[in-house]
Amino acid sequence: MEFITDREALRQHYRAPGDGAVRKELRRLDRHAKGLLARSPFVLIGSSDDKGNADVTPKGDKPGFVAVLDDATIAIPDRPGNNRLDTLENVIVNPAVGLLFLIPGMNETLRINGDARLTADPALCERLAAEGKLPVTVMVVAIKAVYMHCAKAFMRSELWVSGTWPDRTSLPTLGQILRDQLALADNAETLDRSLDESYRKSMW
């Protein structure tokens, strides 16, 4: 198998991007981007460490959980998780992040690229509290690029078309997966009950 190793060779396989695809990239949030952020309950955060090891992590909460601090800065609260801190440790050494904001039922997505820093500032944590609980830290992103991503991937995948969704009972539960991957002695039902209990007690 022959691999493509430089930009010139890559570009030979594609047409040049259209004028709109280039000009749509903004440097600051406009009213449309702010409106979408206010309605988005879910973001995917792409990051990498100082050695280039990549990570993508999901963050989600009620719509508008990501705060607009000003036209060029947003804040993402960190809710309880597994404490691996993959993304948070990455931005300590490499602040570059790529964000993909989703709104259920909407095929277009909002993309934001920028540099992230972490803070435990009491006032900001208080502002981003949910269900009476403060985030442990907040990721503050200085925006470098904002643009809309077209609908083709979501249309091809039919992600929001419920009739295409697999029967959930045909897929393994997380308890079954963890039991097999970690060679745990507990049965899957016990693990799933433990996970459900953890979700109920530590969502925020």
Automatic annotation (TrEMBL):
InterPro entries: Pyridox_Oxase_FMN-dep, Pyridox_Oxase_N, Split_barrel_FMN-bd
Top-level taxon in the UniProt lineage: Bacteria
TM spans (from-to): none
Domain Pyridoxamine 5'-phosphate oxidase N-terminal: 30-150
Protein name according to UniProt: Flavin-nucleotide-binding protein
Organism: Aminobacter aminovorans (Chelatobacter heintzii)
